[in-house]
Amino acid sequence: MAKHKLDLHDFFNKGAEIDRALGDALHHCVDRRIPLLEIIPGKGSGQLGKKVIRYLQQPAVKRLYHRIEKDSGNFGRLFVRFKH
Q: Dihedral of CA 25/63/69/52: which sign?
């Protein structure tokens, strides 16, 4: 299965860059009809993961994807699934 991967480790504490990277990754998947986006906010304190979830739950963003799944075996990873 095709997927796109976004590793946010390098963006820690850079709010605007995180939002831009997330938006770019979502649109990349939509434009290319990629069914799965893997986002790696990392484990750490969990703040970056919470920021990612807040971003994804914005109404304009939520329209772009089908659902979010947390990786049960790795809480430092999220999957965004698309219905194209």
A: positive
CATH class, 3-81 region: alpha beta
What burial class does residue 10 get, using C-beta atoms within 10 Å of its C-beta: 0-12 exposed, 13-18 middle, 19+ buried?
exposed
pTM of the model: 0.90
Please tell me the distance from the alpha carbon of residue 45 to that of residue 20, in angstroms, as a whole number: 22
CA nearest to 62, candidates 72, 54, 74, 50: 54
- Which structure tokens are listed for 69? 């799944």
- pLDDT digit string (tens) for 45-62? 788 889 999 999 999 999
H or E stretch at 78: strand 78-81
Please report, for the chain, the start and end positions of each structural domain, with discontinuous segments joined by +.
3-81
Integer-rounded Cα radius of gyration of the chain: 12
